[in-house]
Amino acid sequence: MNAIHLFLSEHLAPDALNALLLLGVILFGGGWVGRTFQKLKIPQVVGYIGLGVLLGKTGLGLIDGSTMTSLQPFSTFALGLIGFMIGGELKAKTIKKYGRQFITILLMESIGAFLVVSLLVGFAAWLFFQDIAFAIALGLLMGSISSATAPAATTDVLWENKTKGPLTTIILGIVAMDDAVALLLFALSSSIAGALIGGGNSSLGASLLDLLWEIGGAIALGCGAGFGLKRIVRGFLEDDRILVFSIGAILLLIGLAQYLGVDIILAAMTMGFTLSNFAPRRSKTTFSLVERFTPPVFVLFFVLVGAKLDVGQLGTVSLVLAALYLFGRIGGKAAGAMLGATLSKAPASVRRYLPFCLLSQAGVAIGLSIVAGQNFPGPLGDTIVLILTATTFVVQLMGPPLVKHAVSKAGEVGLNITEEDLIRRSQASDIADENIPQIKEEDTLESILNVFAQRDNLYYPVVDKQGNLTGILPIEKLKDAFVATDIAPFLVAHDIMEPSEFHCQYNTPATEVKELFKKSGIASLPMTNEKGQVTGMIEYRRMQQHVARKLAQLKNKATALEDA
Amino acid sequence: MELANHIKVERCTALKSATKTEALHELLSLLENEIKPPEFDGVAKEIFYREQIMSTGIGQGIGIPHVRYPGIQEPILIVGIHPEGIADYASLDDEPVCLIFLILVGADRHKEYLRLLSLLVSKLKTPGIRQRLHAAAQEENAAQTIAKILKENDS
């Protein structure tokens, strides 16, 4: 008995949940949860964070502090990838076009949140603690942190829903850049708070210099890395090699940014921006390869975000302050965003729906709260960390569904799809010509010619008396028959048709259809029902035309939204 | 391609059958040594299927059953001679069919198939040829005579 007990405790002890097993649980569970949430039409990122909460400090405690520390590089990597992908979507042309709107809205929504939160939290803190210096310090610090918006969860919703249009463009620009504003406001607030209650950074000048280094250094580093990667991928054609170099470059950049103490997201974003704007065509492959690589890293990142949150320790005062912070931030950002959009004459959809998209907070906000915790040890620092943890939990779960609501209402969902996406979403019936005339086996050349004369299809299905597919009649075979005019009166469709080796059904995925065209070298594919009767025909040439037309329609729709 | 290259005396035969179905089976039996089952059964099935779609009796006592079938290497032409004529052939002009030209070509040889059919039909349209062929069908050594007529002056 003892031996069995020993054996079990040795092999099934909780610490046997090694790092790889944990990664497996996170990715497998994350994949499953993401799929389930997608089916429920809730952004998958909510599922990932929920799973993190369940596995982390608040829930089962499977992911503890030390695990989190050991998995931290993955989170940093994810942030780098997010920055890189956002940078890839920002085009110089767009920035020129939206530049004024970007800056106005960015400043308004950041400062709006800063002012409202500072006032509300500061006033409440004064009521609770009756200490004006403490209240002002807390208000300013919380206000500055409130201006940050996390790009990760927001952009994940945008990418998941393949959005495109003015709202998407503005969101991408703002969520990526308002961290810089948050850092600036935090540096200012931190100095004032330090002067008021002691602690904090030595002087405003030093804080600003740090900030300049953090932002300027990130931009310089990102530019350099972007040009470097551009030179490297220019020489390669193989996807595998481009992927290895791109991921390598992103990792190098993140590592260097960490080493130099500059902003990682901004550096990665600048790199993506440089690459996509200075090598627009060649970098398309790079971005689509990196995009395919991102899902597991993102799942891990969001699960860890959830795991990090510990909402068990909240007291009444912290709860009230957290609620004020939350409402103040939402209200301040909404008012600022609407005012900024109105002043800069942004499209109506931006004015109406942008406020819903600025809720998410994560890395930077938590990071700043931790910095505040270190710089202002004691009640001030602790309160900030606690409140930020609680509110991050709420906004991370609330933010993504609201972003989805906003982009859906703005009509931007599904407009940013590539040919591959479109084919992935389609089935045979979407691309088939269901009105194609059917040629009967006994039809004579004369009646076949009539069919060809009336339509511009190059391939027609040939059917027996029951309507079952027996072959395909391509135009070349018809041409051959004209050479032999002597026999024309004696020939029927059956004599000149080709056997049909392949066929599909209405629900055959379009990807399979495309694959079949590619592999078998056929130019047309009949569509049949379960009984084998012909219900349509897919011509490769027409499938391509259909896809091109559909993509053009989506592009026009996105352009129309800009003018709305 | 020349029609003469595909005419072989041993593939010209006097038919004993009285019906279309029997006659086609009789013609196909000449190929039993060349085409092995299951291809043989497939070819037979295809021949009868084609007749079901539309009769190959083109009128004036002539029938040209023809199919493409996978695995047939060289085009095959078999001539069946029936002096009295097969009454149930369901010819275009409802006349009995005295001469049957059975053509078999590989499934992927569409152009050769049409070319062979065309050569045969234009030969049959040559003035006097049909009369000579019908007259030859009544002779005792019809096979040799018919093969000779089909081979002559093919250019």
Main attributes?
heterodimer, A: 564 residues, mainly alpha, CBS-domain, two-stranded antiparallel ribbon, 23 helices, 6 strands, elongated, B: 155 residues, alpha/beta, Mannitol-specific EII, Chain A, globular
Tell me what the structure shows.
The complex is a heterodimer of chains A (564) and B (155). Chain A is mostly helical. Chain A has two domains: 76-294 and 312-388, Na+/H+ antiporter like fold; 424-552, CBS-domain. Helices cover 72% and strands 5% of the residues of chain A. Chain A contains 23 helices and six strands. Chain A has helices at 2-11, 19-39, 44-55, 65-89, 92-129, 132-146, 151-160, 166-197, 204-234, 239-260, 264-278, 282-308, 316-343, 348-353, 363-375, 379-409, 419-425, 428-431, 445-454, 475-483, 493-496, 510-520, 540-563; strands spanning 439-440, 459-463, 469-474, 498-499, 524-528, 534-539. A four-stranded mixed β-sheet of chain A has the order 1-2-3-4. The longest helix of chain A is centred in the first third of the chain and has 38 residues, at 92-129. The model of chain A has no long low-confidence stretch (mean pLDDT 81). By secondary structure, chain B is of the alpha/beta class. Chain B has a single domain (3-151), classed as Mannitol-specific EII, Chain A (3-Layer(aba) Sandwich), CATH 3.40.930. Helix content of chain B is 39%, strand content 21%. Chain B contains five helices and six strands. In chain B, strands 1, 2, 3, 4, 5 and 6 form a six-stranded mixed β-sheet that branches. In chain B, β2 and β3 (62-63) form a beta hairpin. In chain B, α1 runs antiparallel to α2 and α4 packs antiparallel against α5. The radius of gyration of chain B is 14 Å and the shape is globular. The model of chain B has no long low-confidence stretch (mean pLDDT 88). Chains A and B meet through α20 and α21 of A and α3 of B.
| SSE string of chain B, helices as H and strands as E | EHHEEEEEHHH
| Cα end-to-end separation of chain A | 77 Å
Just name the CATH architecture of chain B: 3-Layer(aba) Sandwich
Estimate the helix proportion of chain A, in percent.
Answer: over 70%
Largest sheet of chain B: 6 strands, mixed
Major sheet description of chain A: 4 strands, mixed
Helix content bin of chain B:
25-40%
Q: Describe the global form of chain A.
A: elongated
Level-1 CATH class name of chain B: Alpha Beta
